[in-house]
């Protein structure tokens, strides 16, 4: 069945919303995206786009556009102890192709998706803060400006604080994990600036593991920028938000006990955002009458597997595909949840279980690091193959809506 001018309103011009907008518009739907922000801006920092997410971008014909933004092709993950000594290294990308693992700036991914959505005919309306989504035979959206809009279907891709998620899943409350995360980018030092060097030199995700904290860093934009995510265990919390800034001195203080590489990095930070990391249950109900959740709205994910954006991309593809294949909308929405729920729960649980592994204290950290070192030297495949279910999963099954 073709999406002949089915009208679709999408709340949120984030990763899920824009990917769904392109997928649905390419299939003939009449799509409008409402975004609260003034513009779809430079919010966020680095993201790791793993092969499963890249497969969706390829299906949407946008993988080359993303590579062209200066996305760095990651080679591996170097696990280091707090002093900076290499514990082990995991291989990531194979030969150039679908199995690639890219390091990108969130703003670049958003720009590529937005351009792709517009090119497919979708309209994107900034400055539209949605107050309410009302399910029904003709579902509607009420904006804070008092405008009511109706459509055949409403997609809530409005992120972690989704109002529709709360309506469909009352009583489902997030719990503070006892972790906060600073996110920052710093310009790369002059000696590393040339792109060739960045792509020949440091193409690893570096993870420094300390007691009760870890720091992840990798190059962005052809090596001209470096991303930093620094996680610390703490009793008190800060709001979950893209816009909560913090004094870089707090980041420096939290990581002052780590080795010279980490201290040199944190010393270069001039601006940083701080996130409180919360564990949210995956929504049990993803859709109501002609309304549906996707991305973080359905399943906010801790960043310890770098999968939130990748799962959002997968959702967008699977939802558009279900709507395209199934004439009855209620059946299509139910099928979408069935296809996604198990996989998403597994990814969320894996991320939930990951933080403590990086944060071990001595002597446990010495034992664990020794084990990793031995395994990395003797059977490196065992360390990476465990994630085949995640990275080698292609929801598009190789299909292309358009060639990139
Ligand atoms: C520290 C950290 C590191 C991370 N690292 C990675 C990583 O390496 N790889 C990865 O895959 N993921 C990562 N993530 C997760 C990833 O950023 C999110 O999972 C992803 O952005 C979810 O996409 P989304 O489209 O569902 O939501 P969002 O990207 O949050 O987009 C939601 C959009 O909806 C808009 N909106 C919200 N409410 C309204 C409203 N009422 N009206 C109109 N518009 C509204 C917002 O302005 C926003 O544009 C990380 C997250 C954190 C916190």
Structural account:
The chain has 404 residues and is an alpha+beta fold. It has 2 domains: 7-46 and 103-174 and 280-354, 3-Layer(bba) Sandwich (FAD/NAD(P)-binding domain); 175-277, 2-Layer Sandwich (D-Amino Acid Oxidase, Chain A, domain 2). The protein is 34% helix and 25% strand. The protein has helices at residues 15-26, 51-59, 63-67, 106-119, 163-168, 195-200, 248-254, 260-267, 308-325, 329-352, 355-358, 364-378, 380-385, 388-391, and strands at 7-11, 30-34, 46-49, 72-73, 76-81, 86-91, 102-105, 123-125, 130-134, 140-143, 148-150, 153-156, 175-187, 204-210, 213-220, 225-233, 245-246, 272-279, 287-288, 291-293. Strand 1 (7-11), helix 1 (15-26) and strand 2 form a beta-alpha-beta unit. The protein is globular. The chain starts with 6 loop residues before the first strand and ends in a 13-residue tail after the last helix. The model is unreliable at 195-200 (pLDDT under 50). Bound molecules: flavin-adenine dinucleotide (FAD). Residues 11-17, 34-37, 47-48, 128-130, 157-159, 181, 183, 229, 275, 295-297, 301, 303, 306-310, 312 line the site of flavin-adenine dinucleotide.
CATH superfamily of the largest domain: FAD/NAD(P)-binding domain
Kindly state the mean pLDDT as a whole number?
A: 88
Termini Cα gap = 24 Å
* Number of DSSP-assigned strands: 20
CATH topology title of the largest domain: FAD/NAD(P)-binding domain
Strand content: 25-35%
CA gyration radius, whole angstroms: 21 Å
Which blocks of ≥5 consecutive residues have pLDDT under 50? Answer: 195-200
Count of distinct structural domains: 2
The backbone outline, from C-alpha atoms, is globular
Class from secondary-structure proportions? alpha+beta
Fraction in helix: 25-40%
How many DSSP H or I helices? 14
The CATH architecture of the largest domain is 3-Layer(bba) Sandwich
Bound molecules: flavin-adenine dinucleotide
């Amino acid at each position: 069945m073709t999406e002949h001018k089915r009208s679709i309103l999408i709340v949120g011009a984030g990763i899920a919303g824009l990917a769904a907008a392109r997928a649905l518009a390419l299939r003939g739907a009449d799509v409008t995206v409402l975004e609260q922000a003034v513009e779809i801006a430079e919010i966020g920092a680095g993201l790791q786009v793993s092969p499963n997410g890249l497969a969706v971008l390829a299906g949407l014909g946008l993988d080359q556009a993303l590579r062209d933004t200066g996305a760095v092709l990651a080679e591996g993950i170097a696990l280091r102890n707090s002093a900076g000594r290499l514990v082990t290294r995991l291989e990531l990308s194979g030969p150039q192709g679908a199995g690639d693992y890219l390091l990108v700036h969130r703003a670049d991914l958003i720009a590529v998706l937005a351009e792709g959505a517009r090119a497919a005919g979708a309209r994107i309306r900034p400055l539209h803060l949605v107050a309410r989504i009302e399910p029904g035979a003709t579902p509607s959206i009420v904006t804070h400006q008092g405008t009511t809009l109706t459509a055949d279907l409403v997609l809530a891709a409005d992120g972690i604080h989704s109002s529709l998620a709360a309506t469909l899943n009352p009583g489902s409350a997030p719990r503070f994990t006892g972790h906060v995360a600073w996110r920052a980018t710093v310009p790369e030092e002059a000696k590393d600036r040339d792109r060739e060097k960045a792509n020949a030199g440091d193409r690893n995700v570096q993870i420094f593991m300390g007691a009760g904290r870890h720091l992840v860093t990798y190059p962005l934009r052809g090596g001209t920028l470096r991303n930093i995510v620094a996680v610390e265990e703490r009793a008190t919390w800060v709001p979950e938000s893209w816009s909560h800034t913090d004094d870089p001195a707090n980041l420096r203080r939290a990581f002052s006990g780590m080795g010279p590489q980490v201290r040199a990095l944190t010393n270069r930070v001039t601006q940083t955002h701080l996130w409180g990391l919360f564990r949210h249950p995956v929504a049990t109900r993803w859709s109501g009458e002609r309304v549906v959740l996707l991305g973080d709205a359905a399943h906010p994910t801790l960043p310890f597997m770098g999968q939130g954006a990748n799962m959002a991309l997968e959702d967008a593809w699977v939802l558009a595909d279900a709507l395209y294949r199934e004439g009855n909308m209620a059946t299509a929405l139910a099928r979408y949840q069935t296809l996604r729920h198990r996989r998403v729960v597994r990814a969320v649980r894996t991320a939930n279980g990951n933080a403590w592994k990086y944060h071990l204290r001595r002597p446990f950290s010495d034992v664990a690091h020794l084990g990793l070192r031995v395994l990395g030297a003797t059977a490196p495949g065992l360390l990476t193959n465990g994630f085949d279910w995640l990275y080698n999963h292609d929801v598009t099954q190789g299909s292309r809506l358009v060639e990139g």
